[in-house]
Amino acid sequence: MAYQYPVVVIGGGIIGLSIALSVQANGTDVLLIDKHEIGSGASFGNAGHIATEQVFPIADPAVLKSIPKMLLDPLGPLRLDWRYLLPLTPWLCKLVGNMRHKPFTHIHRTLTTLNRAAFDSWQTFIQKWQLSDLVKMEGSLLVAEKNETLDKLGEHSEYLTKIGVKNQLIQQAELLQREPALSTSQLGGIFYPDTGHVIDLAELHSRLTQSFINLGGRVLTHCEVTQITSTSNLEATVTTTQGVFSGRKVVIAGGAFSKSLVRMVSRINVPLETERGYHLMLPQEGRRLNIPVSSMDRRFIMTPMAGGLRLAGTVEYAGLKRPPNMQRAHHFLPLAEPMLTTPLNSQESTPWMGFRPSTSDSLPVIDHKGPYIFAFGHQHLGLTQAAITADIVNCFIHEQPTAVDCSPFSIERFL
């Protein structure tokens, strides 16, 4: 016998959790399922940056000429495990195809629109769930340490202003006034006012989960989905290691693991790959910076958190099964130190690796077909787009108009 719920959400990362909470708060009961703990995957280990300024596809023609050099550096910002090249090739070919002018422009404009809405959604989400002590919408910095990079930042700033992305080009004196811990090797940068960061991701997930439970939501952890079936557009059945559940709507929000879930319900082969990302957490360095600082030259980010300073970034293509190379995480330390006035304290530092879910066109899948709702594939922007995705899915379920045009996020674009 199947236990019945109006909505079953599969995936307890920040996307699935935000959806479950928003739908429950709107008066519809939700069962939230995760095969591990809530918020334990990429949602736990991401950079903590609400990066609404990142409006370009992951496949940017501007970095093409830099790719060979990156690939030759075993600890550089981009790595491809050559043993994974064959299964990666179809996705890679589609990714390169999206670098052409027409698809690139479409993706760029869509991300710009979505991230603009994402900022507003986060502001509302913070206020509704009283998160102002955990989520700081105080801006972020992108810095340069070469004159040629500074020139590029100037051009980038002008372009972003033209398309409505708020930013401020700042010279070295103002940069060092904002972040005194930065070395004089940093020549200037861009300040993005409409961005933010989470100072404690684990506490964020804990608090949102408790709010969800307080509203009557149910959580099942260490619960793996083995089958999803439906006999009509009105209901679907989810078979798991902890029982069978039916829902009028089943939301697939499994991040990098969504591809296998989609295969259970659709013939569409979604070009979804995992970009493995790393971080190094420095628990002794929580007060080094005030806001997130990204380096355009070094291609990584430093985010101040309650539990220390998080150094994060890199892209590694090696699939879901290869063991992590934690040297990539420890390599952040020699990357970061030349940017700062004094050496970092790396005592008790902890490395981490996780999986970012990236489609070949850099856009998430946010769609509904029959009893199924899809909400995955947010690449580096899962945290950034969590609140707006929850708003959209909530509108799907309650048959309300969405804040943005969702046609670019249709799963059928991959037919």
Automatic annotation (TrEMBL):
Lineage of producing organism: Bacteria, Pseudomonadati, Pseudomonadota, Gammaproteobacteria, Enterobacterales
Name of this protein: FAD-dependent oxidoreductase
Entries under Gene3D superfamilies matching the protein: D-Amino Acid Oxidase, subunit A, domain 2 (3.30.9.10), FAD/NAD(P)-binding domain (3.50.50.60)
Assigned EC number: 1.-.-.-
PANTHER family for this protein: GLYCINE OXIDASE, SARCOSINE DEHYDROGENASE-RELATED
MF GO annotations: oxidoreductase activity
SUPFAM superfamilies (alphabetical): FAD-linked reductases, C-terminal domain, FAD/NAD(P)-binding domain
All copies of domain FAD dependent oxidoreductase, residue ranges: 7-393
